[in-house]
């Protein structure tokens, strides 16, 4: 059984960099696609980007300030989002998919076969 667990600070100040980790157990991050998705309060899911052995994909709206990386020795995926504002307040999830269609198609939870519990991040001074 593959399990994903997001972790990181729950409160980040505006203009700082948000950094989250997704720890994966029961499966290797060297196969499949591993995405970061978020859900701002009162809004729908928003795919941010994904990493796989073949490369990294970002949603264009995040491309100037997002970085996704992985540590295969720890089986972890990391998200870094710079220059955060209160609009980045959201529950952040990591998810695994066997295929990827970059963009809006990845906003649906149905494309993921495994999904973390999510971690709340609030951007506030």
Describe the structure.
The protein is mainly beta. It is built from no helices and eleven strands. The chain has strands at residues 3-7, 11-12, 18-25, 33-39, 46-52, 55-58, 66-71, 76-81, 90-97, 114-115, 119-123. Strands 2, 4, 5, 6, 9, 10 and 11 form a seven-stranded mixed sheet that branches. Strands 1-3-8-7 form a four-stranded antiparallel sheet, with no helix packed on it.
Please supply descriptive tags for the structure shown above:
four-stranded antiparallel β-sheet; seven-stranded mixed β-sheet; single chain; 125 residues; mainly beta
Secondary structure elements and their pairing?
Layout: E1 3-7, E2 11-12, E3 18-25, E4 33-39, E5 46-52, E6 55-58, E7 66-71, E8 76-81, E9 90-97, E10 114-115, E11 119-123
Parallel strand pairs: 2-11
Antiparallel strand pairs: 1-3, 3-8, 4-5, 4-9, 5-6, 7-8, 9-10, 9-11
Gyration radius, rounded: 13 Å
Report the sheet with the most strands, covering strand number, pairing sense and barrel closure: 7 strands, mixed
Give a count of the beta strands, DSSP E runs of length 2 or more. 11
Which range best describes the helical content: under 10%, 10-25%, 25-40%, 40-55%, 55-70% or over 70%? under 10%
Our count of helices gives 0
Q: Find the structural class using helix and strand composition.
A: mainly beta
End-to-end distance = 39 Å
Strand content: over 45%
Unreliable stretches, pLDDT < 50, 5 or more residues?
none
Oligomer: single chain
Label the overall shape. Answer: globular
Mean pLDDT: 96
SSE succession = EEEEEEEEEEE
